[in-house]
Amino acid sequence: MDVLRRKNVKVTGSPGSPVVMQAHGFGCDQNMWRLVAPALAEEFQVVLFDYVGSGGSDPSAWSAERYGSLDGYARDVVEVCEALDLRDVAFVGHSVSAMIGVRAAATAPERFSSLVMVGPSPCYIDDDTYRGGFCAEDIDELLESLESNYLGWSATMAPVIMANPERPELGEELTNSFCATDPAIARVFARTTFLSDSRADLKSVDVPTLVLECAQDVIAPREVGGYVHAAIPGSDMSTLTITARDAATGPVLEIAGDLDYDQAPRLRQAVTALSLEPEQCLVLDLSGIRFCDSSGITALIVARNHAVAARADITRAAVPDNTIRILRIVGLDRVFTIHPDVGTATTHRPATGGP
Asked: Where would a tag sit more exposed on the chain, N or C end, judged by fewer CB atoms within 10 A?
């Protein structure tokens, strides 16, 4: 079986376009990108794959010796790049894959142009000068629980990791993904993930790097994102910020950063916490948004529904072109009222009571 079939590689988008490779984390597979990849494929060639032992990969190619180290997973990444003869790849790694991407870029620097690290953690265990989120005893207990009853551990931990209690279907989806993994393979991947220490690798990263942290992450606390950002020379870091203020027409939420799968729940929480009066207009200032995926679009729909329930109006202001394009793709440009700037939005009153 060739490399592409062994790792269940899928390529979408236009050949010749810039390449984005997306890599999943522990207990998942490429399906986790299903809501993001189609939007990226509008402008990029998108490469998805499953690490050996995950998803639709060939389990017969898995060995505890190779995958007992993050280097084994990094070899999967490099082998996909070699099989497709990819150059200048923008590698997007979620969770442990962020560190796998660091090792892949060090192994084959000619293949990679940039790294996007989503919820990265170079080390999960605290020490005297570093907070990883867990003490050594915590990790021992986590691994012991996983190894003794993997399916029970999955059912308990997946909803906690996912959070978003208002959307239990997400926790169920992650539970199902965990449970679909062979327990023997999951045990090795878990030990590789939670016991690895990649802090020393960060200083050698020499490609443009964006660190995306989640404001509420039970696995990687906020301090970890800051540590990674500080350790990688010249890296950028983005966290969604939401600032509320009042205008004559009603509340204004200024939203900046990446409105994505990790950050969208913060917008939903901020919006639903607002007390809107009938005939007020909620203005969402999106001028600072750098990226918006389907989870972000869902959060915008939640905001609209909240305003409608309060018999208030809602409008979006200064929507970036890339987000406008996504709204058009899904037909929501005909549903959302959009103004060119906040000044216009806060002086405009819709002719009807609905958005």
From this structure: N
Confidence at residue 57, expressed as pLDDT on a 0 to 100 scale: 96
Catalytic residue among 95, 177, 198, 238: 95
- Select which of 50, 201, 217, 293 is catalytic: 217
Q: How far apart are CA 233 and CA 254, in angstroms?
A: 30
114-126 core/surface letters (b: 16 or more CB in 10 A; e: else): bbbbbbbbbbbbb
Which tokens hold the place of 250?
């009603």
217 catalytic? Reply is yes
242 or 49, which is more confident? 49
Amino acid found at 44: F
**Letter string b/e over residues 153-188, b meaning 16 or more CB atoms within 10 A of that residue's CB:** bbbebbbebbbbeeeeebbebbbebbbebeeebbbb
Distance in angstroms (rounded) separating the CA atoms of residues 23 and 21: 7
At residue 182, φ and ψ (nearest 5 deg) are -55, 125
Q: Which neighbouring-strand residues pair with 10?
A: 48
Please indicate whether residue 246 is annotated as part of the active site.
no
pLDDT score for 166: 64
